[in-house]
Amino acid sequence: MAESEEESRRAASKEVSRELKTLINGDDLDSLKQLQYLILGRLQDSNAVMSHFNEYSENCFAEVAGDFSRNTRLLKSMTLDLDYIFQKLRSMKAKILATYPDAFPDESTIEALDRRPDLEMPQ
Question: What's a GO cellular component annotated to this UniProt protein (predicted)?
């Protein structure tokens, strides 16, 4: 009995697969297969290009990483130096203003004293 069930299942599956083959055009399947191979080739080419670009970028970054870190340290040190300088200038200005109140003109006086042309504004 088990053999007859097995044979009937095989026969049924063969019938179903034969019916499915009649529903699908073989030329369409071949066309889809060719398109899939074309897309696969393009994706592999793109992957190779991206891998090459990543290696190139990694090498370029390795070349300039030392310069970046050195220049970053230099900029931080310059910032600290400038902060110190401006702090000293503010304290000196405060001492001068305490001693000589008229030493620095206010905003209205600055505009009257400054007669230079404004190079940013078109004439």
Answer: BORC complex
> Which residues lie below 8 Å from residue 104, measured CB to CB, with a gap of 6+?
93, 96, 97
The parent domain of residue 65 ranges over 33-99
What pLDDT does 27 receive?
86
Q: Is position 59 within any domain?
A: yes
In the block, residue with structure tokens 């599956």: 13
With respect to residue 7, please indicate whether it lies within any of the assigned structural domains: no
- Is 20 inside a domain boundary? no
Domain count, the chain: 1
Taking the C-alpha atoms of residue 32 and residue 41, their distance in angstroms, rounded to an integer, is 14
- Picking from 123, 122, 105, 101, the residue whose alpha carbon sits closest to that of residue 114 is 105
C-alpha 38/C-alpha 45 separation (Å) is 11
